[in-house]
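A further point concerns the way the authors explain their paired sequence and structure data. For illustration, here is how one protein appears when written out as sequence plus structure tokens:
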Amino acid sequence: MPELPEVEALREYLDEHLTGRVVERVLPLAVSVLKTYDPPLTALEGQTAGATARHGKFLAMRIGELHLVTHLARAGWLRWQDTLPAQPPRPGKGPLALRVVLEGGGGFDLTEAGTQKRLAVYVVRDPQEVPGIARLGPDPLAESFDRDAFAALLAGERRQIKGVLRDQSVIAGIGNAYSDEILHHAKMSPFKLTASLDEDQVTHLHAAVRDTLREAVERTHGVAAGKLKAEKKSGLRVHGRAGEACPVCGDTVRSVSFADSSLEYCPTCQTGGKPLADRRLSRLLK
């Protein structure tokens, strides 16, 4: 799933390539992708694109007086093309969900791999009309997201820290991959309860959030949209690297599996050398 650093890189890319261009046509190819109907997609046609904003994992493209907002979900992506095929695409079962054609040639596709269709597109007058944006917590890269603001968000939480970091209503933009990376950076167990954090641990975790995300954004700066996925994977130290050596201590990175996802961590760096129970495997062994 694209998270804050990759979505920020896409925002930069669209600001450079889309701003000032006129939308010629918008072609929806998957019925499930469009979540709003008023204003219609056709209201974007003939309008000039302005700046693109990022709200957590959402992209909001200003087009005329409206906003084309998308959430790429787990398997969605934005593919820019300097030249689009002359023939319009046909709706079908392929990955293409929506195409935006620009005057003068080129445009971009929104695609989604797999069978679970969760990619979402909205046409709104204000991005805050999108329910997922309206409920977002603060952006962790905002200047106002200081240590005290972070501590206030954690106050009263009784959940495991991994789940809190991923909760978009608490902090916007962090998903499964970067929560693993943040907790590895902070040398903290993903199962640690938020309520058990002392003042120094809160300070250290706040620094890990900011440093991990800033470094990831810096790595993606200037990377073409088509290469962002590979760049993300190359920069991850533990997420998706179960069975490999931890780059910090050399211990083997381990995984805990859930129904539709997994987390990765280093026992030496994060859990005092103790492996965490893989609860899905434990249930199978009963």
Observations:
- The first strand starts at residue 23 and ends at 28.
- The chain has a mean pLDDT of 92.
- The longest helix spans residues 199-220.
